[in-house]
Amino acid sequence: MPALANPKHERFAQALAKGETADAAYVLAGYEENRGNAARLKANESIETRVAEILERAATRAEITVASISDRLLKIAEKCERTSEANKLGVARATLMDVAKLNGLIVDKREHTGRNGGPIEYANLTEEEIDARIAALEAGDGEPEPVGEA
Known about the structure:
The protein has helices at residues 7-17, 22-28, 35-42, 45-81, 86-102, 127-139. With 150 residues, the chain is mainly alpha-helical. Helix 1 packs across helix 2, helix 1 packs across helix 4 and helix 4 (45-81) runs antiparallel to helix 5 (86-102).
């Protein structure tokens, strides 16, 4: 399916594919904020089809890129392993680590921060706040805003 004929619809679909909420995508597309219209447009069959197409193309490109890079790195590692020279074995090891990182098998250290970049404070949370954070993490939504605060 080519780009949608209506430019605002195309911008809306592009924003949805990038992960924006329907409300945010609606405004980014150039419409006045309207939650009902945003939800209705998101449910439009041509919008749903276009978003699926955009996501499929992006997934294919990412898969090909990761797969082809991994393949090339593995060939380098294999070539280096065929020799007994220490420096080439080091290159093989480093290359294999690169492949593992590229494929998500190894994650570099990540720093988690709370509000305004400070530490995450769990000691003062209520049971309701803890349950909300656990539910958000299980749903893959990350850390929610603290309950009861704007």
